[in-house]
Structures are given as C-alpha cells and as structure tokens.
Amino acid sequence: VSRDWSSDVCSSDLTSNCTEDGVATASREKDAFVEANIADIRRDISVGSGEYLSSLASFYGCKGNDSAAFGKALRKHQDRIQAAPVQGASRVIDSAVSEEHAACRS
Asked: What's the CA gap between 43 and 25, in Å, rounded?
C-alpha cells in the first residue's frame, strides 16, 4: 500500500499526532497506521505476506526481499501481536522488530 498516511492522520480527529506544519512525525505516523489497520496487519502476519505487512515494513526501511524477512520475524511474535490491545500494538511490534533485529534501516 503506497500511501501518504500523514495526510489522513493530520486531517482526522487525531490532530494531536501532527506537528505545527501538519506532518506527523515518522514514529507517530507508524503508530497511527498500526492503530488504524491492526486487523489487516495481524491477518497479513498470520499468512506471512500482504499489502499491510509490506506497508508496515516500509516504516522500518524494508523493501522487496527485506519485507519478506521482516514478515517472518514478526510471525515469530504473532501471539504477542495478536494479543496486544489496539493502542499498544505498535509498541509490541517495535519490541518484536528490536528483538529480531528486523529493521532494515541502519
């Protein structure tokens, strides 16, 4: 899913996630994406691929084959991610990415 989520976030009721110039910070943008799409992200993690998982991977700098490895790393933590409350899911995903060294950015 190639989309500018910051415009959706800043134009919604979640304006506290926006900076003065109307652009969400990268971390808040990722958090808003996860919160808005957690059901689809969970489904993609359970099957190992999908557009929402690819979009999530892009927040961590992963593209192409790196996205597949990112998905496999999150699948190891599927139970924790499935059980996380919607508003805490992004932190659980961050923790899983950190534990698996799955982020693709340096």
From this structure: 26
